[in-house]
Amino acid sequence: MSFGNIKKYEMSDSFQKFKSIVQEKGFFDKESGIVIFSWIYNATLMISGGTLALIYNHPVSLTIFSLISAFGMAGLGTLAHMASHNATSKSKKVNLILNYLGFGFACGVSPTYWHYTHNRKHHVYTNVLNIDKDINLMPWLALHEGQLTKKGVKALYYRFQFLVAPFLLCFNGIDIQRAGIFYLFTRLLNKKKLSKFTILDIMMVSLHYIFWIGLFSLFFPLQIVFIAYLLRSVFTGLLLFCVIAPTHFLHETMFLKKKQMNMDPVLRQASATINYKTGFLGNMLCNGIQHHIEHHCFPTISHAKLPSLAPEIKKFCEKNNIPYRKIGWAKAIWKTFYVFYSPKKVIILD
C-alpha cells in the first residue's frame, strides 16, 4: 500500500472493542515459562561466550566467542525492553528488577535513560521528527532528505555516507551507553530529578563495569579483558541496530511531523512501523521486536503472545484500511542500510 492511497481513518469505538476482544482471548496473560527460558538462554550465551573469549584468547576464538556473548547480551537487552513495558510479569516489581538487570547490569545501559527516550518519547511520538530520538543519527548519518545540505563538504559527505555507515554503527552500543551515563550524570547534579531509581540505575551500571572489567581482570590480563569488552560492545551495538532499526527506518515506514499527531493513533503507529520474519535464533534475539506493529499497539503484551496476536492485528488493519507490512529480516536489514544511500522523503498526509 502506498502512502498516497492511505485515507485518514476515523476511529470511533472500533479499536476499544478490538482491545476488549484481545483481552477476552487471554493475550494479556503472561507466559512465564517461555520468558524464563529466554532469560536463561541469553544469560548463558552472554556469560559463557564472554568467559570462553578470555580463556581461548586467540584472535579468531576471541572474536567468535565475543560475538556469541554479544548475541546473549543483545537478547537480554530486548528482554529488558519488554520488561520496561511491564510485559514480562504481572508484578511491576519483577518487571522493574528484570529491567534494571537486563539494561543496567547486563548491557551497561541506563534503564531510566531508556525509559525516557523509548517509553516516553518513541512510543508516544513514533517516527515524529525532532522528538523521537530513535530516528535521529545526526550529525553522523542522515535518514531523510530534510537533513541533507545542498552545498559544501557536508553535502559531499552525506552523498557518500553509506560507505562509512557500517563503520560508524560499530559504535552504536557504546554511544547508547555513553548517552545513558551522561543522562545519569545530569540527574545526579539536579537534586529535583535525583530519585531512588537514579541511584539504583547508577549502581547497576557500575556493577556492569565491575563485573565485565574489574572481576575478569583478576583472572585474565587487563588488555585482553578490555579488547573482549570492546568487541562484545561493537557486536552488541550492531546486533541491536539490526533488530530495532528495520522496524522504523525503511522507506516503507513514514517519518512524521508533529502536526500529524492528530492522526488516528493506530494508523500513525502502523504507518511508521513494519514487521519482519525471523527463525528460532532470531526469535531468541529479538524477543518480540520483530512483531513491532503488535508491540506498538499493545506494548504490555508478552513477547511470547505476539506471534498469535499478529493475525488478529492484521485482520483489524485490513478491515480499517490501515497498512500492515511484513517482510523477511535480511531484506529489512538491506532496506535499512539502503536509506543511508537514499535518504527518505518526509510525506505529509492530508
Short description:
This protein has helices at residues 14-24, 32-55, 59-84, 92-107, 111-122, 152-159, 161-168, 172-189, 196-215, 222-244, 265-271, 280-286, 292-297, 306-319, 329-341; strands spanning 275-277, 326-328. The chain has 350 residues and is mostly helical. Helix 3 runs antiparallel to helix 4 (92-107), helix 3 crosses helix 10 and helix 8 crosses helix 10 (222-244).
In sequence order, what are the helices and strands, one letter per element? HHHHHHHHHHHEHHHEH
Which geometry do the CA atoms define? globular
SS content category = mainly alpha
Helix content: 55-70%
Task: Describe the sheet with the most strands.
Answer: 2 strands, parallel
Per DSSP, what share of the residues sits in E-state strands of 2 or more residues?
Answer: under 5%
Overall radius of gyration? 21 Å
Mean pLDDT: 89
Task: Please give the alpha-carbon distance between the first and last residues.
Answer: 16 Å
Q: How many domains, in number, for the residues? A: 1
Which strand order spans the largest sheet, edge to edge or round the barrel?
Answer: 1-2
List how many beta strands DSSP finds: 2
